[in-house]
Amino acid sequence: MTVSDLIQQIEAKKSYLCVGLDSDIEKLPAHLPKTTASILTFNKAIIEATHEFAVAYKINTAFYEQYGAEGWNIMEKTLELIPKECFTIADAKRGDIGNTGKMYAKAFLQNMDFDSITVSPYMGRDSVEPFLSYGKVVIVLGLTSNSGSQDFQHLTTPNGKLYEEVISTVATWGSPENMMFVVGATQAEKLQEIRAIVPNHFLLVPGVGSQGGSLEEVSKNGLISSCGLLVNSSRGIIYKSNDEGFADAAREEAKLLQTEMASYL
Amino acid sequence: MTVSDLIQQIEAKKSYLCVGLDSDIEKLPAHLPKTTASILTFNKAIIEATHEFAVAYKINTAFYEQYGAEGWNIMEKTLELIPKECFTIADAKRGDIGNTGKMYAKAFLQNMDFDSITVSPYMGRDSVEPFLSYGKVVIVLGLTSNSGSQDFQHLTTPNGKLYEEVISTVATWGSPENMMFVVGATQAEKLQEIRAIVPNHFLLVPGVGSQGGSLEEVSKNGLISSCGLLVNSSRGIIYKSNDEGFADAAREEAKLLQTEMASYL
Question: For residue A140, what are the β-bridge partners?
Fold first, then answer.
């Protein structure tokens, strides 16, 4: 689906919620057997319970790669379970040049048909562009929410901090129709500055909830007329309860976030 | 295997050659059927033909991920075919924080038992450290050889270019025993500067041959008493010939590079 389709869904559902499927055998509800098959059972229940309130699902590829080929299969099957009106994100943080970049793009955007993929910008233009030729969306790491973001992203460069330079430069390689940026939610005070650089792009904001970001702050500083925000919650939703009522608990949590989002839209 | 084991192998084989298994169905020798199974047949022949002259093999994960779960299986089987005395590199360019980084590390360094993995530094310390806790080696992108390296890696920061700042900072998070850096070979003139920053670390140098780097230049500027170099060649070796003699041709090319390397050691 395109960014225009996403905007329609946001208007219809009054939500800019992205549910992160960081599904880990060790954290599954206690009654489920600790097998990779249970991840699919779990994901199916979570998707069915939350899709009324979510416009996007983010699959964190690391959680699936840890189980090798079997995990890769479960990732593919999970993607098929996501309703077609939801925007899908491969949170893969890939990035490599030319031919290699094209293969990552092919893997996620063509063979698996994700709507988008997260990409690291360190290697520059020819590591981002291969992802732009599939008519999908590339989501480039701008400012991340972890403590390590201080190490390099905040370095002073001739045109501002590195993350500002990255966002303003990368934005010239695409358009708001085929490009978004990851902006860590714990940096809500930075959102205004970033909005000045990319007034029309969608921002994928992880870290609301368990990583300490405030939905109100993020919304106040990040919303634009087309919404322009996807706010992700992973653990806060999918692990809300550890018992047989986990799907209902996830649904309640998603509904709560959607209700709050509706009030900001 | 450890960096000390690698140094022993370099001394024994008089080689610091790394063979890159960028194996692509479309480029396999013409007589092989265009199937994923042929990739394994091809890799087996290449490994058998070249391991006398190579101390390391680099598996470019994108080439395998493009075939989904099946590709992942072939990657695992290829890894098993590499002789134990050779250092193995997952060229995965991963990088994510905390729990997620740990899962990537587990996937490649524990479940698949690679000796090392390439990692992107953009997200900072807590995206690199999860890879350091498996007693293996993390290979961090320093200066890459692609044209896009100009976009951000060469930006001026308070302590030199970004790539210099990245290399000098990242080096403090580990030691030459558990950390290496990727340094693009087409930037041979930069190797001296980088050697001044990390006089004792191994550098993984891709891009000799098809990407235009000169082995002589790289060796002159990069070698240290423990060698400190792994020079990678992918296409130049594995696709040297497209007919039934492809393995012999790969062997001859590897031997040629090894002979030249022996003269620099």
Answer: A119, A181
